[in-house]
């Protein structure tokens, strides 16, 4: 099965994948903030290298437009367009328990002889929680999530709608994941990024993150 054209990865200085990213509109890329931290980027305005998984897409620069370490989300813009964007974003809070979901991202598979360009992991939606600092998280249960999938969209099986962004794992040995929460089809911190030309601007809000559990 071909990989969705909206998916890609953030590259380290050595050119190896450091985490997953995805395109929500032409030239607008979303990933987890800690993925950028892993390549030494911790401020807006910094430039990283990214590429789509799709073979026809080139490697190119991405500028960090919005960075929210508390909610572990980042928005970048890039002249290197991915073949397509995600179909839609849906509110995390509206998802039913047990909803089948899917993660596709770059993966460091233990003991693998070869590096996997991308890896699929199926799971189920497991609700949400709050941290002691008041930050809201979504949760999903997934046995096959791997290191490197941080920043990948959590896609609802059936219609491929994005309902969260992978942030981390509670228990790596059991592969349970936590996702960024999407609230009312927007990504959560108030920010402004240009989506088309210089006239159309949309607030990008960064909220729920989601861990695999």
Largest sheet: 7 strands, mixed
State the end-to-end CA separation: 26 Å
- According to DSSP, the number of beta strands is 15
Task: Work out the helix count.
Answer: 1
Which parts are unreliable, with pLDDT below 50 for 5 consecutive residues or more?
Answer: 172-176, 184-213
Q: How much β-strand is present in the residues?
A: over 45%
Structural features:
single chain; 213 residues; mainly beta; six-stranded antiparallel beta barrel; 1 helix; 46% strand; globular; disordered C terminus
Short description:
The chain is 2% helix and 46% strand. By secondary structure, the chain is an all-beta fold.
Describe the protein in words.
The protein is globular and about 40 Å long. The two termini are 26 Å apart. It is an all-beta fold and 213 residues long. It has one helix at residues 33-37, and strands at 7-11, 17-25, 28-31, 47-52, 60-68, 73-77, 100-107, 116-130, 136-142, 153-156, 162-169, 176-181, 192-196, 200-203, 209-212. β10 (153-156) and β11 (162-169) form a beta hairpin.
Secondary structure topology:
Elements: E1 7-11, E2 17-25, E3 28-31, H1 33-37, E4 47-52, E5 60-68, E6 73-77, E7 100-107, E8 116-130, E9 136-142, E10 153-156, E11 162-169, E12 176-181, E13 192-196, E14 200-203, E15 209-212
Parallel strand pairs: 11-15
Antiparallel strand pairs: 1-2, 1-4, 2-3, 3-6, 4-5, 5-6, 7-8, 7-10, 8-9, 9-12, 10-11, 11-12, 12-15, 13-14
């Amino acid at each position: 099965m071909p990989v969705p054209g909206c998916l890609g990865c953030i590259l380290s200085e050595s050119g190896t994948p450091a985490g997953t990213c995805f395109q929500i509109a032409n030239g607008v890329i979303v990933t987890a903030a800690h993925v950028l931290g892993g390549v030494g980027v911790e401020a807006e305005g910094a430039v990283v290298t990214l590429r789509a998984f799709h073979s026809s897409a080139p490697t190119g620069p991405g500028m960090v437009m919005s960075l929210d370490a508390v909610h572990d989300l980042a928005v970048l813009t890039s002249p290197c367009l991915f073949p397509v964007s995600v179909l839609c974003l849906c509110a995390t809070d509206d998802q039913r328990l047990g909803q089948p979901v899917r993660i596709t991202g770059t993966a460091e598979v233990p003991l693998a002889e070869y590096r996997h360009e991308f890896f699929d992991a199926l799971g189920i939606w497991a609700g949400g929680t709050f941290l002691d600092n008041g930050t809201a998280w979504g949760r999903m249960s997934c046995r096959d999530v791997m290191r490197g999938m941080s920043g990948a969209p959590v896609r609802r099986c059936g219609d491929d709608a994005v309902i969260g962004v992978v942030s981390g794992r509670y228990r790596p040995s059991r592969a349970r994941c936590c996702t960024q929460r999407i609230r009312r089809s927007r990504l959560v911190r108030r920010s402004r990024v240009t989506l088309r030309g210089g006239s159309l601007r949309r607030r990008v809000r960064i909220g729920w993150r989601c861990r695999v559990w």
